[in-house]
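Hallway conversation turned thread

IA: we were arguing at lunch whether anyone had actually written out Potassium-transporting ATPase KdpC subunit end to end. Turns out nobody had. So, for the record, here is the sequence (188 residues) and right after it the structure tokens. Reply here if something looks off.
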Amino acid sequence: MKTHLFPAIKLTILLIVLLTVIYPAVVWGIAQLSSAAGEGQTLTAQGKTYYRNIGQSFTQDKYFWSRPSAVGYNAAGSAGSNKGPSNQEYLATVQMRIDTLLAHNPGITVSQIPMDLVTASGSGLDPDFSVQAAKVQVARIAKIRNIPEAKLISLINMHTERPLLGLFGPERINVLALNSALDKLSSN
């Protein structure tokens, strides 16, 4: 029994120190090197401060719509819907989102709708969407805000974030930052 008990106690103590002291210290140290020094990135718009890295709900026609959320954009309950692609309720929800998008953007077809405008992300809090998701909404916003489409495309290009090191991940746009810039553009 002693041959198993003492190694198990030593291993337990080692793992406690490693996983509760050393690993968190390393993660904290790496976070200090980030642009926000480990804090959430914020953006102030219309006198309110928002977290840039947490999805916000934009559903008004004058804004670029954000990616749907399975948790109502509640950061306390980050989660996906956990419904598979063959679940009838899930398929009905996606079809409803497609129908709503088509009704509010009459110039587009189903084949032009990017997946990220009708499906929620795994966390339900994705603050970004694809460049295509922004471009399919340009005509609607240009008409409502009376802004030339070319100006909106330029705004999209300015807010497009490139892949990490040019290799990892797709191009993406932070919806909150884009809509904040859109409000500033409209007020000029």
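OS: looked through it. The helical segments are 2-32, 88-104, 131-135, 138-145, 149-158, 175-187.
IA: good, adding that to the notes. DSSP finds six helices and five strands in the chain.
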